[in-house]
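Here we describe the complex-level prediction in full. Unlike the single-chain runs in Section 2.1, the two entities below were treated as one system.
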Amino acid sequence: MHNNHTNEAYGFESKPLSKPRKHDRFPYLQTCLKGGLLTTSMLTTGEAMAEYGLNFPEPAAGVAREIYGIHMMTMTIATVLLVIVFAFVFYSLFYHRKSRGYEADQEFHNSWFGNWSWVIVPALVLGVDLTIAGKADAVLKRVWDVPKEENIMDVKVTGHQWWWEFDYLDHDIKVESRFVPKDKSGDLYLREVDNRLVLPTGVKIRFLHTSADVLHAFWVPELAVKKDAIPGYVTETWAELDREGVFRGQCAEICGTWHSRMPIVVESVSPERFAAWTEDQKAIKVAAAAEASADKEWSMDDLLAKGKGLYETKCAACHQVNGMGLPPAFPPLNGSALTTGAIADHLDIVIKGKEGTAMQPWGTLNDLEIAAIVTYERNSWDNKTGDVVQPADVKQAR
Amino acid sequence: MSTTTLTHDEAHHHEAPKGWRRWLFSTNHKDIGTLYLLFALIMLFLGGASAMLIRMELFQPGIQFLDPDLYNNLVTNHALIMIFGAVMPAAAGLANWMIPMMIGAPDMALPRMNNLSFWVLPAAATMLILSFVVPFFPGGGTQINTGWTIYPPLSVQVGMSMDFLIFAIHLLGISSVLASINIIVTLLNMRAPGMTLMTMPMFCWTWLVTAFLLILVVPVLAGGVTMLLFDRHFGTSFFDAAGGGDPVLFQHLFWFFGHPEVYILLLPSIGVLSHVIPAFSRKPLFGYKSMVGAMLAVATIGMVVWAHHQYTIGMSLGAVTYFMIGTILISIPVGLMVFNFIATMWRGSMTFETPMLFAVGIVLMFTFGGLSGVMLAVVPADMQYHDSMFVVAHFHYVLMPGAVFGLFAGVFYWLPKWTGHMYDEKLGKIFFWTNVIGFNITFFPQHFLGLAGMPRRIVDYNMMFTEFNVVSSIGAMIFGLSHLLLLYIVIKTIRGGKKAESRAWEGAKGLEWELDSPPAFHTWTVAPQIK
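The structure predicted for the assembly as a whole is:
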């Protein structure tokens, strides 16, 4: 909530991933045709590689470059081996067939080669294996463990159903990152978020991965480090960004209904712009905290206005904008016993969550935010309780 | 060597019973084999229909037909139905039909247990299907949106469907373990006099190893899902970090079963290939002993590399290095197997009937899948590939050619023996080509989707992934529908066709080809003498 206006404020440009392509009269037919052509001309033109993403995107960190290198090496070895196998098989298919009058060599397996191939072939394969494993081991040593340095920047990445939370532990900043619906994200649908993960170049960054509910996985191909977010675990990866840009990825471990709606957008900026961004975030945070802690009686209208925005970003993914939920997984709030019953119960479930379900504790929100959400839920759609929940009530309920 | 006539005469006083009793109370290995194969065929169509729904949804970006939970439910069920419902029972069906006939035994060693291990399956399948449909009834809870890996904590959130699934897995496991015991006992005790372990047909060897693998790993899965059941209902915290448990423990238990399971699916088909390729190359299998050795090596190493499915959970450098090198080393025995098949074809006198076409297809495409497997084994590179569509492409390239095409090859190879009729060769070839072309159009583009950044198991995707998904979905429709042709060919062959000789194929070797086509209800009641 603290940094809704990152993009606008800094004018960072979001570059579309691929050129928007014009589909005129027969969009389906065109895609089909293009697709068909693609499979035949696969990997032949550099342009196609860029436009359709036939390989990893260009790495943006040293770790990712190493990984790209080992990927290309193993792929090359695999391709060469494949060509060799295919060559032998097709030679045999062509020449050793009955229709050409070829007589089977019944003693082939008793030849010198037949008797020793069980040693020769594994030895050859072992040679290839050691080549791959040797290189891979060297790369692994460089990318796997986080460098032990004093001034490494820590970012805690917490997976939630279905959004990401980024805590800049050294800067005391928290960013909540959610997917943006299609009407606002257009071509970047499922690849765009409201608040980006802004990171500086030229600084070693340690990502600490964990989860608040189920398993998730942090994956941005340009950074290459993929790691599961596991409740109860803190796992780590690291990267040092070496170019500016906007890099997009998504959650890679199935995490329930809206697994497809957990994009990650990394915005890589110069250290100076990053410093300016952190200052700005802190200012927004201070202002929000001051507003929330002010001993003020809030009017119904103000709470409803605030609550609508908060509800639609934080609650609507499950309970839906119209409050009807998606039963049975996500119960409706419209006309439910909870939202029209006792205020205390309502506050309790919002603050503490409900165990064994996707309903997480929202206690990390401030008193004003919870008051606004609860007030909104009790006075929207068909709910007409007329209750106004004040931040002070929330404080008491905690 | 041949005692066919004697067998035939003796069999006359004990013909097949009539009506439903013949099947429900059957203790005859051939009838139970047929039941297994029919069951697998039905499940193949169920699993295939769910796969086609998945691909229909992914044809275009956006959510068109399926809500996200139904989509993930289909993803889960597709995997479980195909693995436990189609491939494993089909392989067991081949084993039931062929092993006694190949080793000169009158039947399986434990015929009543054989009956039980089949008839548990329909019950298990019912539970499995219930786990899919229960959420559509009032009060049925949420759908299984976890994928077949059913990792907690997500699988703890799921409604009562998950309990149906857990019990389905238990029943399927019981069926597999019983069948495995039966196969091991049969192979060790009922070989014809003179047939040693090192001279028995290769299909028997592959099943011997498969059966041991099943007995070793299925109980681990059963234990894992039981712990999950306890976490869900009885307040334990095996996999709940908040209660002192460990969500990753389930992954280790699951993949301790799950990785050997890959070889369980693969090995019987390797066995089929070891018969089909020599038969149509008209020369003996190249490297019988190295084949056995390679298989034992695959099974042994395959048991201790499971965590390569979990490179991203944050293991130590030492642990991932071990799992990486272990996994890469599997390429040695697997490479030797592929080499032996190519060497069997080499300087042969080949003809290309449908079983041989599938066999050649397997050698080529399984090699492709194996090589992308080596890429995935490399830990740093897997940090990119992991849980992307690249993985989906890889394991379909391993399991479709490696397991399913092998079963197709076996069905076409032995169909004349089972039914007494030759199948329609022209239709068989059409089936092969539509099937293989459809398969490649479906799965080849998925490699690129994965590299470009598309995760697996997502119902909706950004438009940058559209092109390859369109291609893949079109391929999937061709691939899926081609199986109707298989059904037609099988029915047509059962109903009639050119009479098959005892030795239906010119180059076919082995005891089963000395029996009539179709064989008598009871065969080898007097064991043949192997010289």
